[in-house]
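Researcher: Next sequence.
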Amino acid sequence: MRQPYSWSIGRLTAVALVTVLAAGCATTPAEDDPMQMKLNDLDARVARIEHVISNQSLVELAQHLDSVQADVRQLRGRIEVLENSAETMRKQQRDLYSDLDKRIAALGGASGGATGGVGATSGASAAPPPAPPASSVEQTVYAQAFDSLKAGSYSVAITGFKDFLASYPASPLAENAQYWLGEAYYVNRDFDAASGAFRNVLQKWPDSRKAPDALLKLGYTQYELKKLPEARATLTQVTQKYPNSDAAKLANERLQRLPLS
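Model: Next structure:
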């Protein structure tokens, strides 16, 4: 039996409507997934943080490198200062040894070789009367200390001269022992003790042939101790009191090296 015409039209209309709705659904974009959006945002934040951290690390590394380089420059400067100071000390030490060697060598031709310069003069205007000869024991003890000084055993020489002075304070060799004790202290860079030893020569034996050298070396110790006004006064006194002596010549040379202020 044939269906009514109106029913066929309605069926076609429904089919057409379904087709249109299906097409509409196919063309409408699906909504973004909220969870995916949060993950994407989180990934972006992490990327930005990593970028910042990377840049900050580079800055800190550069700053650290600058600091290290500054430390290296500072250390190099200190090393240069220390090297200069060491070279100055070595030069001063060589000068001390050279001066002492010259003084000892000058005694080689002097009479009474073991006496270390008894009878030698440094240019004093008036010579004291000859002293009685030292005993053989005194000469032996003195010679042992003096030989230690010549050999460069300064500590041994210091002990020897001190023992000699304690045992034979009235010996004709005592003034020389006192002077060479000062020289041993001086070359050993014990300038305070050297100063005291040279002062003792000038106080106990002011007319000694060792007086000009003792006064000169007293000025040297004051110079080494940075007592420049005292050094200038002492060295000037050498030139005035013993104008024609070797000590005066050396005093003038040292005066020229003193700062003006």
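Model: Residues 34-106 form the longest helix (73 residues). The mean pLDDT is 76.
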